[in-house]
Design goal:
With about 400 residues, the protein is an alpha+beta fold. The chain folds into three domains: about 140 residues, no CATH class; about 60 residues; about 110 residues, no CATH class. The protein has a six-stranded antiparallel barrel with strand order 3-4-5-10-7-6. A four-stranded antiparallel β-sheet has the order 2-11-13-12. The protein has a three-stranded mixed β-sheet with strand order 16-15-25, covered by helices on one side. A hairpin with a 5-residue loop joins β6 and β7.
């Protein structure tokens, strides 16, 4: 009886522990804080120092850009723009992402892409390029050596290229000059936006936050993709600490039943909740092979003796043998057609309640991934696949 009493006491604790071991993900991995995001920047500049692999002299905008740059440096080239050569220079577009809360002086990476007909940016240097945001304001300035992940080399009749040689990066080459204003420290209310909106996940997230954060916050699910959090006035001074704790809370993630098919690569991906109703399947391949053979009969050369021996013998009506008038090349075509069809029996797949049973049932058919794509599409058309079918 004492042992039974101990078991009855421990049972609620075990059930509570098991209930907390629900498979889920951290909040910071499945959603983002509303308003906290990066901003895209873009700029137009010049890459110099190329070894004859830059833009062609016929490229008008590269020549104009070189003339404008030299004019700003005190070298007046507007009247002699026809003399500007650009094979060692390339016009490029520079892009970067300004991270949230970036301060003045922060360095970020930039991507440099050739805009003209340059064949390679290897060994080049990006001249100071202002990077602008969607509002037209300059938020960063980029300059520095361009690093490539490949190379190109060649001669008059052969060449070799590895990876992309017209796109590179300037590591930590952009210097932030303007901050994006964001008064987040005094925000009493903020939102968590789910990357994959789902009503169940949003509700579970709100319940988990209210249960673990105590009286410091109150959370509710506004819709399938938004969880609104209100911070108590007494905790506004420690908002950063509260957000840090919120980000690391595990939340059960509810997924939809989805089957993703990629017909280009033959890839099939199925989610956890994919189910198949009882269905019978017969799948066989029909292959037709057509082979053309050309037969050529070539007579001997037409020398006096060879021509005589090469003539075929023809039997006349009286039974006498006479020589044919001469040899002739004969070409005949021989077509061979073969048809092969797999003989597959009708296979019944029982209703599957787990993803493991679904995989085992489909493996029992013994087909390739590309055939499996066709089978899944047909099962969906029959109404036996209880999942969304996405083809990419």
């Amino acid at each position: 009886m004492k042992q039974l009493g101990k078991i009855l006491v421990l049972l609620p604790i075990i059930l509570t522990f098991a209930a907390t071991q629900v498979e889920g993900a951290r909040i910071k991995d499945i959603c983002g804080i509303g308003g906290v995001r990066s901003n895209q920047l873009v700029g137009y500049g010049l890459a110099v120092g190329l070894m004859g692999t830059g833009d062609d002299v016929k490229n008008g905008y590269t020549r104009e850009t070189i003339a404008n740059m030299l004019t700003r440096q005190g070298v007046h080239m507007r009247d002699r723009i026809a003399d500007v050569k650009s094979k060692n220079t390339a016009a490029v577009m520079v892009t970067a992402n300004l991270p949230p809360f970036a301060k003045n002086g922060t360095r970020i990476d930039c991507t440099v892409s050739s805009l003209g007909d340059a064949t390679s940016l290897q060994g080049s240097t990006l001249i100071m390029t202002p990077l602008r945001g969607p509002d037209g304001e300059i938020y960063a300035v980029c300059q520095g050596p361009i690093l490539l992940g490949g190379f190109s080399a060649g001669g008059a009749s052969a060449s070799v290229v590895k990876n992309q040689t017209t796109v590179g990066i300037v590591a930590a080459g952009a210097l932030v000059e303007r901050e994006v204003e964001m008064d987040f420290a005094n925000a009493k209310t903020f939102a968590l936006n789910l990357y994959n909106p789902d009503f169940t996940t949003a509700r579970q997230m709100a319940n988990r936050l209210n249960a673990q954060m105590g009286n410091s916050i109150s959370a509710y699910a506004k819709d399938s993709g938004t969880v609104v959090i209100r911070v108590d006035d007494s905790y506004l001074a420690s908002l950063t600490t509260i957000i840090s704790e919120i980000e690391n809370i595990d939340v059960p993630v509810s997924m939809s039943a989805v089957v993703v098919l990629n017909e280009k690569t033959g890839t099939v991906v199925m989610g956890e909740y994919v189910r198949i109703s009882t269905v019978a399947i017969a799948h066989g391949n029909l292959s037709i092979t057509i082979k053309e053979n050309i037969n050529v009969s070539q007579p001997l050369p037409f020398s006096p003796s060879a021509a005589q021996s090469a003539r075929p013998t023809v039997v006349d009506e009286k039974g006498g043998a006479v020589m044919a008038p001469g040899g002739q090349t004969v070409v005949t075509k021989d077509t061979d057609v073969k048809v092969a069809e797999e003989k597959r029996k009708l296979l019944m797949i029982p209703q599957a309640v787990t993803i493991q049973e679904v995989v085992q049932a489909l493996n029992a058919i013994g087909v390739s991934p590309r055939d499996l794509i066709t089978i899944l599409q047909t099962i969906k058309a029959a109404g036996a696949l209880q999942a969304e079918l996405r083809i990419i």
